[in-house]
Amino acid sequence: MTHVDLEDSQRTRATAPELSSSEDVSQEQTDYQNTRPSHRYRKPLRRLVLAIVVGIALTPLLLSAFAAFLIRGQDELKATVAFPFGGQLAFERTAEAIGDNVEYAGVFNSEPNRLVERGLVPSQRENMLKEYERLGIANDAIWTAPPDVVGLSNLLDALEDKLEHDPEFTCAFLVNCYHSRHFTALIEDRASPTASRNLHVVTCDPYSFSIWNWWLDSHGRRTVITEGINLLAFYLAERTENHSWRPRTSEEIRDAAVDVDG
Amino acid sequence: MAPTNKRGDSRRSRRRRWLIALSTVCILIAILYASAPAIARKAGHYLDVGKPLNKRVDFVFILGGGANDRPIIAAEIYKAGFADRILIASPEFLPDTPHEARTEADLVEGMLTWENVPLAALEQLTLPEPSTRGEILALKEYMAEHDSQRGAIVTHNYHTRRVRLLVTSLMQQNMSSRLNYVSCPTDGFSPDNWWKFESGLRTYWLEFVKYAAAICGL
Predict the structure, then answer these.
(1) A35 Cα to chain B: minimum distance (Å)
(2) Any residues with CB less than 8 A from the CB of A95 and at least 6 apart, and which?
(3) Is the confidence at residue B98, as pLDDT, over 60?
């Protein structure tokens, strides 16, 4: 196309002095001007500007759509056991639902880290029990996973075992709405399809920002972008390698501190 | 029968151009896929500019975000006699932190005392903002007060390049040249295999985003 235009332009330039009628000359001049590089780029430039304007206008819509994509779960909390993962609001919702839609508040332990091992912070189990006590949940309304169940993978295995004996048993995980797609994918990845039907993800609103205009708040931006990266990492990570993950020993860390010989 | 007119020729040449472009893209993708581990390894090592400390310094500064392991490195430096003082970043509470929770600086202090570092050797630096930038600004203020002191910054290996970038952009050259960077290894993955683990992908991708933002001055 460009090649043809150039040829035309060259031809126009060659014949322009021979034209007699002033109308023709003016027409030819217009054609010549229209084939100048600045004119040739005018149309794509206009399209680019239009695309940018439309892009800017659609940004809030796209960002909200991304938030909507991250949310996957149900609003209603109704289960035999509820595990609150979504911060303070999740604990409060569980406490409110006990006796009505929820029979038990669940407790389990996460993988210990050095801070827990050295007694500097309480374990997840201790934290959950403390929070239930503060919210007035009675001990007989607490379902505790066996002590050897450590981490979410083990908990899902334990729940799957329980479901085999009690098909009526249902479990709800209360998570922050921006984390719900990731959490649902995690359950679907680790639990069998039959068990997944009885394991529900219940969404909770974030504590410090609104999910529908997350980009307006610095904490919201940090959280949602990180969650997007987490979700992508979850889908792309090799599952077999992932299971070989292990923490470093303190000795391995010490070796990286000083180079005495250097 | 293939069209022979001008229009048919241009259509054919356009098709040929598309085919060449598509093949090039496919070849590039194949090359990229085959060399992805090597590229990822290079990228992982690119972010790590730290090394074990091989000379004496006046202080060690532990950056926040790694109370679980960074203090072990700082304690080892102190116990080896390479530093007399350990500085701890002390940010304000984050918005959704329960009020009764201990601060991260308290946890780092706990880890250091557990590693037999005396409390007298520790000092908390209050941050103007809870970010790496805030930590560098707090360190800048400390170094301005303690003229001609040499120091070492302890942080995770993937974080060292961004820290160095911020140090060189926020501090004068005579100040930044007095700092060393010590890399703390991460639990479970390293620059040689981070792309194989979910937590590795998460950590490195986020760091690339943050590094790009730091380059753009955001």
Answers:
(1) 21
(2) A105, A132, A135, A136, A137
(3) no
Distance CA A154, CA A260 (A): 43
Q: Give burial (CB, 10 Å; 0-12/13-18/19+) of A215.
A: middle
CB contact under 8 A, B196 and A238: yes
Residue pair B183/B51 in contact (Cβ under 8 Å)? The answer is yes
- pLDDT above 70 as % of chain B: 91
Q: Any chain A CB within 8 A of the CB of B208?
A: no
Q: How far apart (Å, rounded) are the C-alpha atoms in residues A204 and B76?
A: 43
* CA atoms of A222 and A206, how far apart (whole Å): 13
- Partner residue opposite B52 with nearest CB, options A118, A234, A256: A256
**Identity (one letter) of the amino acid at A36?**
R
Burial A217-234 (b: 16+ CB within 10 A, else e): beebeebbeebbbbbebb
pLDDT tens for each residue of B59-73: 999 999 889 999 999
Q: What is the rounded CA–CA span in Å between residue A230 and residue A109?
A: 22
In this prediction, residue A25 has a pLDDT band, given cuts at 50, 70 and 90, of: low
- Band of residue A7 on the pLDDT scale cut at 50, 70, 90: very low
How would you list the strands of the sheet with B85-90, edge to edge?
Answer: B122-126, B85-90, B59-62, B151-156, B179-184
Give kind and range of the element (H or E) at residue B155.
strand B151-156
Distance CA B120, CA B13 (A): 78
Pairing assessment for the beta strands B179-184 and A142-144 based on DSSP bridges = unpaired
Paired tokens of A204: 């909770």
Task: Evaluate whether ipTM surpasses 0.95.
Answer: no
Contact B53 A241 (CB under 8 A): no
Beta bridge partners of A83: A173
